[in-house]
Design brief:
By secondary structure, this protein is mainly alpha-helical. Helix content is 68%, strand content 0%. It has helices at residues 8-16, 21-38, 51-59, 67-76, 102-110, 115-135, 141-157, 163-182, 187-210, 214-231, 234-250, 254-265, 274-288, 292-307, 324-337, 343-358, 367-383, 387-403, 407-421, 429-440. It is elongated, with a radius of gyration of 29 Å.
Length: 452
């Protein structure tokens, strides 16, 4: 190690007035954000430097910053490489300025009789520094346990909480996971971190979808799938493909939804219900395409898989699991697409779904999915002429929607409003009161092809 007082890094700090850590840290962060925007990845924008690391650089106690830091420093100081930043200068003149460039320094060292010994010592020091960095993992059992606990809590509570606050919480946790992946850890922790990052990006994709931002949802899903690929986790691969299929379905692209569901089915999950979910999504998409044979076959496949399910342990569970009540709700949507001949089946499936969703303790109740199942039940009853029964379900949805609104529920409410306005009982007091209640929450544009 050598003193960094005359290194190029120290000299540039002095010339630019950045010797104070807070000043340098601000300049470093600005450079990281600019570089992330210019070259990526976006995670680079969160790169920071600690005061401890800054002090080591000033003292010349390290010659090889980590990968992101090397990129940011090179960009900050407009250098092709950061190697010269921490190199000890050959000599200095009396006024404190270097009398040789780095190239001159290298040329003089060629004739230095002690060069071979210095080279060997430097190589040994570099190996020792690498071993120290490698041994000093930035991730340990406690870090992973806390991260996994946070994810379990989020996926368990997400279906019952307002979306936007959860979005901010998940985003911060995802950024922290990205930072950990930029560090050094044993391979098994790297795999676990990729799974965690994939799950968190998947939650952000789901939240973006719930907020009506389908473009952002698809971007998050692509990143989540990449993480699943890097982790080699089939359950996560299949779940993300299902989420992408669901976005395509609601975006009025049922053919793409079928293709994505089939792509997800090619991954055999380690355990859980991912394939049941894929088949149920495919059934809805076929219903939207008005292909009853394929839709009913997909529903049958989902039922068969449920009958033969041996392990329902979807990791990490919560919103990533596909319980039976959700399967019934997807079936009711499929039957509604298939028309009047299937109204009885739609009502029965939706009723079962609502009953099962309601049986969960209130803190664990999937309020968004319960609302969608209620809307299926309301539409089935309205089409069967049971306005009072339909109104009961819609009023319950409106009450829930005041606390936890999602784009899917808003679209279903808008569709119900249009259907009700053309119903034979549209002029009845019940229908008029219901339309007034719906109008108070009508904040969305016209419904696209994905109605159910």
């Amino acid at each position: 190690m050598h003193s960094g007082s005359h290194s190029l890094f120290s000299r540039l700090l002095a010339e630019r007035g950045w010797r104070d850590f807070e000043v340098f840290a601000r300049k470093y962060q600005e450079a990281a954000q600019e570089l992330a925007g210019l070259e990526g990845p976006s995670s680079l924008a969160t790169s920071t430097v600690s005061e401890w690391q800054f002090t080591r650089w000033v003292r010349g106690e390290t010659r090889r910053p980590q990968r992101d830091a090397r990129r940011v420093l090179a960009y900050l100081f407009r250098l092709p490489s950061v190697d010269a930043l921490f190199a000890e200068p050959l000599a200095s003149s009396g006024d404190g300025r270097d009398t040789a460039t780095q190239d001159d320094h290298d040329e003089v060292r060629v004739e230095d009789p002690g060069r071979d010994e210095d080279m060997v010592s430097d190589a040994a020091s570099e190996s020792a520094e690498w071993a120290l960095r490698t041994e000093g993992s930035n991730v340990g059992p406690h870090t992973m346990e806390q991260l996994e606990a946070d994810i379990r809590r989020i996926v368990t509570t997400y279906p019952n909480r307002p979306v936007e606050p959860v979005f901010h919480e998940v985003r911060a946790l995802r950024n922290r996971t990205f930072e950990l992946l930029e560090g050094r850890q044993p391979p098994n922790y790297t795999t676990d971190l990729y799974v965690a990052a994939g799950v968190l990006c998947g939650i952000l994709a789901n939240a973006s979808f719930d907020l009506g931002r389908y473009d952002a949802a698809e971007t998050q899903a692509r990143t989540a799938f990449m993480c699943a690929e890097l982790a080699g986790h089939n359950g996560l691969r299949a779940w993300i493909r299902g989420l992408q299929a669901l976005v395509a379905y609601w975006d009025g692209r049922p053919s793409a939804a079928v293709q994505l569901a089939e792509a997800g089915a090619r991954f055999t999950p380690e355990r859980g219900t991912a394939h049941i979910r894929l088949s149920s999504i495919k059934a809805r998409a076929y219903g939207q395409l008005n292909q009853p044979t394929q839709a009913l076959a997909a529903l049958s496949d989902a039922e068969t898989m449920r009958d033969h399910l041996r392990d329902e342990d979807d990791v990490p569970g919560g919103m990533m699991a596909f319980p039976a009540e959700k399967q019934y709700f997807y079936a009711s949507s499929t039957y509604l697409w298939l028309g009047p001949a299937h109204l009885g089946a739609a009502e029965a499936a939706a009723s079962d779904a609502v009953t099962m969703f309601e049986s969960a303790p209130p803190p664990q109740r999937r309020t968004g999915e319960l609302s969608l199942a209620r809307m299926d039940l309301a539409l089935a009853r309205l089409d069967r002429g049971e306005l009072e029964g339909a109104a009961h379900q819609v009023h319950a949805v409106l009450e829930t929607n005041r606390r936890r609104a999602t784009e899917s529920v808003r679209r279903r409410l808008h569709h119900f409003t249009r259907t009700l306005s053309h119903h034979p009982s549209a002029s009845s007091p019940t229908a008029i009161g219901l339309r007034e209640a719906l109008r108070a929450q009508a904040t969305t544009p016209a419904l696209p092809p994905g109605r159910y």
